[in-house]
Amino acid sequence: xxxxxxxxxxxxxxxxxxxxxxxxxxxxxxxxxxxxxxxxxxxxxxxxxxxxxxxxxxxxxxxxxxxxxxxxxxxxxxxxxxxxxxxxxxxxxxxxxxxxxxxxxxxxxxxxxxxxxxxxxxxxxxxxxxxxxxxxxxxxxxxxxxxxxxxxxxxxxxxxxxxxxxxxxxxxxxxxxxxxxxxxxxxxxxxxxxxxxxxxxxxxxxxxxxxxxxxxxxxxxxxxxxxxxxxxxxxxxxxxxxxxxxxxxxxxxx
Length: 254
Known about the structure:
Layout: H1 14-20, H2 29-39, E1 44-47, H3 56-64, E2 68-72, H4 76-88, E3 93-96, H5 102-114, E4 119-122, H6 130-136, E5 141-146, H7 166-172, E6 178-182, H8 187-197, E7 203-206, H9 211-223, H10 234-251
Parallel strand pairs: 1-6, 1-7, 2-4, 2-5, 3-4, 5-6
Helix pairs in contact: 1-3, 2-3, 9-10
C-alpha cells in the first residue's frame, strides 16, 4: 500500500456500512447503542458475550469517522483473522505485532501516517517502543479501541502489564474517544478498566446473560462431564462457561 492518498470512499453512516460492506440488514441491540455513543464522541465500556459482534462496534465507527482507528488487542490470531476479513471486503486495514518483520512493521506504520489505512491493529507490547509511540503522535487517531479490555485490570482473569501503558498512550494521542470491549467483567473489573484507561465517566453497556442462563450453563457443563467447580485454572473455566453460555443463548426459549 503506497502513496499519500487513501483508496477508500467512506459511506456516510455506520448503518449504511453495516449493510453495504458487511452484509447485515440490522444492528443487534447492544451494537447500535455502542456505535451511536462512539459516533457521538463518548467513551464507552462494552461488556458483550463472544459472538455478539463486538468488533463491529469499533470497525463501523472507524470507517465512518475521519482519520485512523487504532485497535489494541493481545490476540495475534484474532487480529490477523479480522484484518484478513476487512481486506477481503476492500477495507484498508493492517496489523503490527511480534509476528510481523520489523521492516514490514515500518512500512505499515508509514502507511498509517500517510493516511493510507483506516484501521490499524496493534499488540500492546508495541507501546514499549518510544519510537513507535512518537510516530503515533503524528497520526490523526479518531478512535482508540481496546479489545479484551479486562486485561488492563489486576482484578481481571487475564491481567497483562503492557495494558497499563494505554492510559498514557491515550493522553499522548490527545485523548481521542475510547471504546473498551470485553466479554467478561465483574462490576469491580469494569470500575478498574475505566480507572486504568483514564476514561472516568465512560458509559457502560452491559449485554450479558441473566442468572437463569448462568445456572443452566453450570448444570449443562456438569452433565457434559466438565469440571466446573474443581481445581481448574480460572481462565479455563471461564472459557468453558463462555462456550456453554453462547450455546444456551442461541437455544433458550423465554
